[in-house]
Design a protein that fits this description.
The chain is of the alpha+beta class. Helix content is 31%, strand content 24%. The protein folds into 2 domains: 9-198 and 360-415, 3-Layer(bba) Sandwich (FAD/NAD(P)-binding domain); 203-354, Helicase, Ruva Protein, domain 3 (Orthogonal Bundle), CATH 1.10.8.50.
Length: 416
């Protein structure tokens, strides 16, 4: 009697987003699936994504998915077309999770609870009889004659044999959730190349730390940022920015970090914030003139309340170099234009990025040229598949990184 290829013993290492999704599709194909998870629960990182609300995906066209992937978008051609964002929404709706679409096409559970996303995945894993081994850390993956044989668990010499393996161990961001880069070591041992690793979608430290501290907690919506390296523009976008005790954060900054990482070494990164992007310099000057006309007998320090958030006023006054006590009707045209310049070019110098524990994702990973893009199988070790953040794939904020996890896991789960 021949081997029943439809009932492989499939091992999944890592019970995060990609691991759970891969296990579900492998089990739906009739395989006997076991997840090995080093934590005492599944989806630890998924639980904290989107500030605990879990931005599941982005309800955009497939072509827009590619535009939002920073590293190796072409590699994802097969994965995104096999399982796009609408497929993800339908998948979750079928499991009983009601979803909603918010600003920027971001998709969230209707309940705003990431725990509900994890709960429906777990229910499906239980329905499919997927075995989940908690507190089991895989320390070694055994490959003989370039084919997968089994795994070794920490504190045990026993080899657990399997037919196929899907490695979904994540990256290095949020180490507390168990993302300690184990998959990179496994892949390296098989002969894979690991590209340069760095934190991504991460806040930035600035040189002007005293200004950042004065503005700590202030969120600016609808501003425009431009980041230059040695005066050459490398990133610009509209969005929301948040000041912190060390520098800047917020969606527009996190997305910018994806593009700025390669430029940090030359140390001359300048962040310019346009506080009034809807107005040209001439229009803004006319607006300031109007305000000054209204408050003509007030001191300069009391004449900017309609123009700026309260916290920002003393900082802008200092940068404009106009005496705060000066009566508004005595401010010269040159001084007014200097104020306009500051409002259109509020500048900071980026010194470094924050660490992995504040990064949403890891940039870099397993070189995708060494992975079959239509199955997610390793080209170096038979019956070994990879999915999710362990691969050299990263995208902007807005649900795109989870979409990468779901799509690559779908392919891996269906290909084993």
């Amino acid at each position: 009697m021949g081997l029943n290829v439809n009932n492989n013993k499939v091992i999944v290492v890592g019970g995060g987003a990609a691991g759970m999704m891969a296990a579900i599709f492998a089990a739906r194909n009739g395989h006997q699936v076991t997840i090995y998870e080093k934590n005492n629960k599944l989806g630890r990182k998924l639980y904290i994504t989107g500030k605990g609300r879990c931005n599941i995906t982005n309800a955009c066209d497939v072509e827009d998915l590619f535009h939002n992937v920073v590293s190796n978008p072409k590699f994802l051609y097969g994965a995104f077309y096999a399982f796009n964002s609408y497929d993800v929404i339908n998948f979750f709706e079928e499991l009983g999770l009601a979803t909603k679409i918010e600003r920027g096409n971001r998709v969230f559970p209707q309940s705003d609870k990431s725990s509900d996303v994890i709960a429906v995945l777990q229910m499906e894993l239980e329905r499919l009889n997927v075995s989940i081994q908690y507190n089991k850390e895989v320390t070694d993956i055994i490959v003989e004659n370039k084919v997968f044989r089994g795994i070794r668990i920490k504190d045990s010499n026993e080899i657990i044999y399997g037919d196929k393996i899907i490695i979904t161990t994540g990256g290095l961001s949020y180490k507390a959730t168990g993302s300690t880069g184990d998959g990179y070591g496994f892949a390296k041992k098989m002969g894979h190349t690991i590209t340069k690793l760095s934190p991504s979608l991460v806040p930035m430290n600035v040189k002007e730390i005293s200004i950042a501290k004065d503005l700590q907690g202030l969120s600016l919506k609808n501003i425009h940022i431009t980041i230059t390296s040695n005066k050459k523009e490398i990133y610009s976008d509209f969005g929301e920015l948040l000041f912190t005790h060390f520098g800047v954060s917020g969606p527009v900054i996190l997305s910018a970090s994806s593009y700025c990482i390669p430029y940090l070494e030359n140390k001359d990164l300048c962040l310019s914030i346009d506080l009034k992007p809807a107005l040209s310099k001439e229009q803004l000057d006319a607006r300031v003139l109007r305000d000054f006309g209204e408050f003509s007998n007030k001191q300069y320090k009391n004449a900017l309340e309609q123009l700026l958030p309260h916290k920002l006023i003393p900082v802008i006054i200092a940068l404009s170099k106009i005496d705060p006590e000066k009566k508004v009707n005595l401010i010269t045209k040159e001084e007014r234009l200097a104020l306009v310049e500051v409002l259109k070019k509020f500048e900071f110098h980026i010194t470094s990025f924050r660490e992995y524990n504040e990064a949403v994702i890891t940039r870099g990973g397993i070189q995708v040229k060494e992975i079959n893009p239509s199955t997610m199988e390793s080209k170096y070790a038979g019956n070994v598949f990879f999915a999710g953040e362990v691969l050299d794939l990263d995208a902007l904020t807005g649900g795109f990184n989870l979409q990468i996890a779901w799509s690559t896991a779908y392919l891996a789960g269906n290909s084993v």
